């Protein structure tokens, strides 16, 4: 560790942070509005809008921390930038004045919606409207958090009909108490696609008899009961009726292996 130049480490970290912040900033700039992103499960290059926002925030925090180290290691150079030709300390050197005015220009130009700054904002809004035109909007705010029952009733659709339509597409975990978001995660489709199915519209790319989603097999049975809002007593009765050896804190995958069945078969029993 003695041979490490920490000043270089700080400078190189600042470089990488700038690259990552630029990348996540661009992704957030072209992403749809939050309600649309969640409604259609929007992702770009493998990450969702929430994940881009989370990375942008944490990297910004690291940027702030590294910024102070950067100032610390380069304080002598910074002081030299603020010296006049007479070697006197002057805050408003020509270079400092230009740097300050450039920042003020962008802040005030954006605040007062002056061109070309407003055009940049408007272009971002145009991109966001594009996503609305392509995917449509949810029937109301946070519709993805509504249960099948609540959504069907809000749209004047019989709950039993909605359940039947979803089961007809062979979706797993279809119960009236599950939210569109949870049902979508369980089956690998967007809440907007589930809504279309409930409306009786044609849907492209609905997965048929697909396997477990990544990481779901590691969830304990109690986790599935909670996420699907199932009756625990009924679930346990179903498991006992099928002679399934289980404990609620054991993962779905391990329980399935213990009983020599697939995790999907076990999930179907849980959902009966």
Provide an overview of this structure:
- This protein is an all-alpha fold and 272 residues long.
- It folds into 3 domains: 6-135, no CATH class; 143-198, no CATH class; 219-271, no CATH class.
- Helices cover 61% and strands 1% of the residues.
- It has helices at residues 6-30, 34-39, 49-73, 75-81, 94-111, 117-135, 148-154, 159-168, 180-187, 191-198, 221-227, 232-241, 252-258, 263-271; strands at 43-44, 47-48.
- The chain has a two-stranded antiparallel ribbon with strand order 1-2.
- The longest helix is centred in the first third of the chain and has 25 residues, at 6-30.
- The relative contact order is 0.08.
**Number of H/I helices:** 14
The largest sheet has its strands arranged as 1-2
How confident is the prediction overall: mean pLDDT? 86
The percent of residues in helical segments reads 55-70%
Number of strands: 2
Distance between the first and last residues' Cα: 60 Å
Radius of gyration: 27 Å
* SS content category: mainly alpha
Provide keyphrases for this structure.
single chain, 272 residues, mainly alpha, two-stranded antiparallel ribbon, 14 helices
């Amino acid at each position: 560790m003695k041979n490490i130049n920490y000043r270089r480490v700080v400078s190189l970290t600042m470089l990488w942070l700038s690259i990552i912040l630029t990348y996540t900033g661009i992704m957030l700039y072209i992403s749809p509005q939050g309600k649309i992103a969640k409604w259609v499960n929007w992702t770009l290059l493998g990450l969702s809008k929430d994940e881009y926002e989370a990375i942008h925030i944490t990297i910004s925090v690291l940027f702030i921390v590294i910024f102070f180290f950067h100032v610390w290691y380069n304080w002598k150079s910074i002081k030299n930038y603020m010296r006049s030709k007479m070697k006197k300390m002057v805050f408003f050197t020509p270079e400092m004045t230009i740097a300050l005015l450039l920042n003020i220009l962008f802040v005030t130009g954006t605040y007062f919606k002056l061109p070309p700054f407003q055009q940049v904002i408007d272009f971002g809004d145009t991109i966001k409207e594009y996503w609305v035109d392509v995917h449509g909007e949810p029937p109301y705010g946070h519709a993805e958090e509504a249960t099948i029952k609540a959504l069907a009733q809000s749209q004047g659709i019989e709950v039993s009909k909605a359940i039947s339509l979803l089961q007809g597409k062979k979706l797993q975990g279809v119960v009236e108490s599950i939210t569109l978001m949870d049902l979508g995660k369980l089956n690998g489709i967007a809440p907007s696609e589930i809504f279309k199915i409930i409306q009786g519209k044609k849907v492209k790319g609905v997965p048929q008899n697909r396997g477990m989603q990544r990481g779901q097999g590691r969830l304990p049975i109690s986790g599935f009961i909670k996420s699907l809002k199932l009756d625990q007593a009924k679930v346990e009765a179903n498991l006992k009726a099928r002679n399934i050896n289980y404990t609620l804190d054991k993962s779905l995958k391990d329980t399935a292996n213990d009983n020599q069945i697939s995790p999907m078969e076990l999930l179907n029993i849980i959902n009966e």
